[in-house]
Amino acid sequence: LDVTMDTWDFSTCLVSLWLHRVYIYSVIAFGISIWVTVQFFTTKKKGENSNWDPASSEGIQDKLVNGYATLQAKEVYVAGVKIFYGSQTGTAKRFAKGLAEAVLSLNLPVEVISLGDCDPDDCLMEETTSRNICVFLVATYTDGQPTESAAWFCKWLEETANDFRFGKTYLKGLRYAVFGLGNSVYVDHYNTVGRNIDRWLWMLGARRIMTRAEGDCNVAQSKHGSVEADFEAWKAKFLGRLQVLCRGEKKACSGKCKKGKCKSPGKQSKEGSDHEHGASEYENAEAEELFETSSEEEPDAEEAAGTNSVIDVEDLGNIVNHMKKAKKSSIERVMLKNFVYPLICFGYQLLEVKIDGLIYFLFSGYKLIGSHSGVKLCRWTKSMLRGRGGCYKHTFYGIESHRCMEATPSLACANKCVFCWRHHTNPVGTEWRWKMDQPEVILQEAIENHQNMIKQFKGVSGVKADRLEEAMIAKHCALSLVGEPIMYPEINRFVKLLHQHGISSFLVTNAQFPDEIRNLEPVTQLYVSVDASTKESLKRIDRPLFKDFWPRFLDSLKALSEKQQRTVYRLTLVKAWNVDELKDYADLISLGKPDFIEVKGVTYCGESSASNLTMANVPWHEEVVRFVQELADLVPDYEIACEHEHSNCLLMAHKKFKIDGEWHTWIDYDRFQELVREHERSGGSKAFTAADYTARTPHWALFGSRERGFDPLDVRYQRKSKVRDISGC
Taking the domains of the chain in order of start, what are their residue ranges? Predict the structure, then answer.
């Protein structure tokens, strides 16, 4: 009897464990994530407290010659000085003018620019190759916020620094110095703006020529008795540093000091090497105390710790130990990104709780809405506000890019595509597991957040006033920000709400939810991503989570053929991955019978442990054109209609949209809103088709036109220094 009871208890225990396995998995995942996180920060703290001189161990290893590692400095010359200021009361502006006069006395060209008149996307990129020195004199205003004139500059810089698509070398070549103005009475926000600008520039690869300085309006705490005296002390140091750089004698500071703080000359001589800043007469103990910097990030392997450092063979043991620690830290960072974050996402999904804090961390620059939605300002919106042209949807379909809201009601996705521009930091899943927010709340907050982002362009240099006013009322919504919008259980209600607000709907799906496609209410334009044409290549490129991904994919295309409104295939070409499957693509086109086919070269989104794509996988525009021409020969019902060279994108359209010899790929948005209202009033009985709301395509948008898809009403902006395309549209 006892044995039977023991067996029964054991079986009951096993059943109970199985029934509660979800909670057990969550606890285990949470415990592992906490352990790895603690290990990561513990190691980081130890690394900060070590006595290692912050030089690149890899660089040292590469330069070992006969037991010594010599770090050579590159010559540096100065073409001029540009002084940027952000001022509320006029103090920073007055300092800028005073500094300009002092620089002129050195026979150097100088320019004083208000941050309110500066377009950061232009002016900062120009300075990466100009050999100028950029000085930022910035005041901290109420609650640690930038002054009104500097607000847009700071917002742009923050978003760019935290957007992985720009990379750590985006501003490489720009040399700068920062002087912040603040009041230490407000201890929680003291010189916040200066510290942030310093850090963000450094994160983007710009190089300090000297550590950041901070002027204090609180005379009781000011190092020199007033903010003016603090500035004068820093100005003397800056001018001395400038003279040194003009002679090419010293290498510019890269901010790799211990906790961003320069060592004193005494310590330098004791270690037998000159620090990056140079053991000059301008560097003394007082300067060290005043001119602290806040950067505590790890040093770049590319940067050296000194200009003429010599390391003896006897010290190589310490070097090797540091290299091992650096390697361990690197491994833990990889674990944190690729193991801990997904585990935390998994735990959040299982527990059906809000993921605002987590996703905010992962999606820098996004405006998160509730538990599972988001909105972000597209770079083409910014471009069209400045009169620099719209996105390919403007060229192909006539949307007004400055009035387009890019959003999603579902951050989660059922694929892990190799070219995902989010690098798989968003949640994944094959079914809805999150606490669901109501569509009314999502739309209201999406519009409010979008308008708030638009408002920040007020007063920004180059922004057209009429377009800024128009942009406050969204007219289009691209449900393609990230994730799989059609997974949202209330997607039909959400789309109807968009239409009730007079907003057109462009919905993108990854062809893994055929039933949802069939049940979808009319949208302005429905996209299906066709990233490959065979089962093997689709598995390799999209890496779908569904085991039956191929039948789902084919059924989704069949469901698309049943829709009466405008439908689009979206092909993303990845060189060496899916550009040789022309016949298979033609077969898929016959299956889904889309109205339009967009063919776009893949956008390289930077290095990622989640993908091995490189710039070599990005096709040239001529290669995309050749692919489309060959594909058009295989599908007789379609022709090439439009081109947007700037996006490396072409549009094939069904011949039914060529009316009396003229293409009608554009959309009559007012007519669509009338049709969809009639459809809803009739309870769905009054149908309408894509042909009912077409509009003629202008000549400049057509394939073969001289403009190659660029609206002649705008002015195309060409960067002076060519950088890689980082478009996310």
Answer: 80-247, 368-687
Paired strand residues for 65: 68
Residue position matching structure tokens 């005296």? 229
CA 338 to chain centre: 18
Q: β-strand 404-408 against 476-479: which pairing, if any?
A: parallel
C-beta separation of 198 from 156 below 8 A? no
**Looking up tokens 């620089």, which residue turns up?**
103
Query: What pTM, to 2 d.p., does this model score?
Result: 0.61
CA distances (Å), origin 89, targets 138, 149, 150, 167, 198: 11, 11, 13, 35, 22
Pick from 608, 611, 598, 610: nearest CA to 638: 598
Residues 6+ apart with CB under 8 A from 324: none
200 vs 78: CA distance, rounded Å: 23
Nearest Cα residue to 230 out of 273, 187, 194, 266: 194
Contact 499, 477 (CB under 8 A): no
* SS3 at position 235: helix
Cα–Cα distance for residue pair 98/104, rounded to 1 Å: 10
Query: What pLDDT was estimated at residue 433?
Result: 74
Residue numbers of the chain with a pLDDT score lower than 50: 1, 3-5, 7-8, 47-74, 76, 252, 254-317, 319, 329, 337, 341, 344-346, 348-363, 423-424, 721-729
Exposure string for 473-486, b = 16+ CB within 10 A, e = fewer: ebbbbbbbbbbbbb
Please identify which residue in the block is written with the tokens 């912050």: 54
Q: How far apart are CA 146 and CA 140, in angstroms?
A: 5
The continuous run of DSSP H or E covering 120 comes out as helix 120-126
CATH numeric code, 368-687:
3.20.20.70
Q: Spell out the residues 6+ positions from residue 299 whose beta carbon is closer than 8 angstroms to its own.
A: 54, 55, 56, 254, 256, 305
Give CA–CA dist 276/311, Å, rounded. 16
* Rounded CA separation 183/222 (Å): 9
Q: What is the three-class DSSP state of 258?
A: strand
| CATH class (in words) of the domain with range 80-247 | alpha beta
Quick count: other Cβ atoms within 10 Å of Cβ 711? 19
Tokens of 73: 């400095």
Mean predicted lDDT score pLDDT of the chain: 77
Cα–Cα distance measured from residue 611 to residue 648, given in angstroms and rounded to the nearest whole number: 21
Give pLDDT tens digits for 491-517: 999 999 999 999 999 999 988 999 999
Is there a shared CATH topology between the 80-247 domain and the 368-687 domain? no
Of 437, 431, 430, residue with least CA distance to 416: 430
Query: Computed over its alpha carbons, how large is the radius of gyration of the chain?
Result: 29
Those residues with Cβ within 8 angstroms of residue 222's Cβ, 6 or more apart along the chain or in another chain: 215, 216, 229, 230
Q: Are strands 310-311 and 68-70 parallel, antiparallel or unpaired?
A: antiparallel
Six-digit token string for 365 = 């620059």
Provide the terminal-to-terminal Cα distance of the chain, rounded to the nearest Å: 71
Digit-coded pLDDT (tens) for 30-67: 888 787 777 766 655 554 444 444 334 344 344 444 44
